[in-house]
């Protein structure tokens, strides 16, 4: 593998196919891309061809994970109702394309709300759309919104995406929409990305629109009277660029009258030290999803604990599962399901703050 790919992997820590796609799509004029094409032309063509193929192909297990319908059930529906005829690989394994996925997401949303599969299978595309709109207007199921948002994200359709979010906000309110619709949506988009069926741009597309909604909600809170005993600094460490969890924390703490200062992503410990030298800080909160830091999570936690012995430190996110040591001023909130219960953690954290003081 050429040096350009190795450097790119170290810098962005993403899988090979996404590296090539990003190099070609976003950095086509960069030195690294030219080195890749010139030094490894056959390898380049092979990987790009494989990337183009994989971007439009899903296994039956992928479909099961994304729709919540068991592979065995899908096979039965195919035989009994002629629901669809997926393409077959040489080994006779079923493969599905993007259109198949969208179709099955619509079916999944209706099926999980009690519609009979025999009726769904006989419905036209227009009829399915009508049933989904009716379900969205009258149902308490979050799945209808999640699947429709996933459909819009796959197509990079911002107007449709925002319209669906607004409908969810109207029906469920802000916090419930974030917790039960938008975070589960990002889990599904992340699953597509991890299996090379989505590009990082699709995750960024969805995340950025959601972050905009949260930012507007924060602005709408206006100025509140804060409890002077508490001051929480919210940040994501160096090379961690997932802002949604910490931005949501910022909203909920502010909404509950707890003063918080939002540093955002990719923040060094030196920056935190500089801020603490001029301001009284009672707590730090960070959420770590990826493993892009130069330090291991436990080493990073030890440094935070040592550098800020007078502050309480709360760390949440999947990476906390690898932290085995106990630190007196550190509270770990392990999130095994990748943000699924984040808001519960945040509410528990707000309670934890008050209990500690």
What does it look like?
A hairpin with a 5-residue loop joins strand 2 and strand 3 (94-96). The strands form two sheets. Strands 5-4-6-7-8 form a five-stranded parallel sheet, sandwiched between helices. It has 357 residues and is α/β, with parallel strands linked by helices. The longest helix is centred in the middle third of the chain and has 22 residues, at 200-221. It contains 17 helices and eight strands. Helix 1 (3-12) packs across helix 3 (31-39), helix 7 (98-111) crosses helix 9 (125-138) and helix 13 (200-221) packs parallel to helix 14 (244-255). The chain is elongated. The protein folds into four domains: 3-54, no CATH class; 59-141, Orthogonal Bundle (Multidrug-efflux Transporter Regulator, Chain: A, Domain 2), CATH 1.10.1660; 143-220, Methyltransferase, Methionine Synthase (B12-binding Domains), Chain A, domain 1 (Orthogonal Bundle); 223-356, Rossmann fold (3-Layer(aba) Sandwich).
Say what the CATH topology of the largest domain is.
Rossmann fold
What is the CATH class designation of the largest domain? Answer: Alpha Beta
Query: Please, what is the average pLDDT?
Result: 75
CATH homologous group name of the largest domain: Cobalamin-binding domain
Kindly state the percentage of residues in helix.
55-70%
Number of helices: 17
| Residue runs with pLDDT of under 50 for 5 or more positions | 1-37, 47-55, 336-340
Strand order of the largest sheet: 5-4-6-7-8
- Note the beta-strand portion: 5-15%
Q: What is the approximate shape?
A: elongated
Number of domains: 4
What gyration radius follows from the Cα positions, in whole Å? 23 Å
CATH architecture title of the largest domain: 3-Layer(aba) Sandwich
Largest sheet: 5 strands, parallel
Structural class by secondary-structure content:
alpha/beta
Beta strands, count = 8
Q: Give, in order, the helices and strands.
A: HHHHEHHEEHHHHHHHEHEHEHEEH
Q: Quaternary status of these chains? A: single chain
**End-to-end distance:** 55 Å
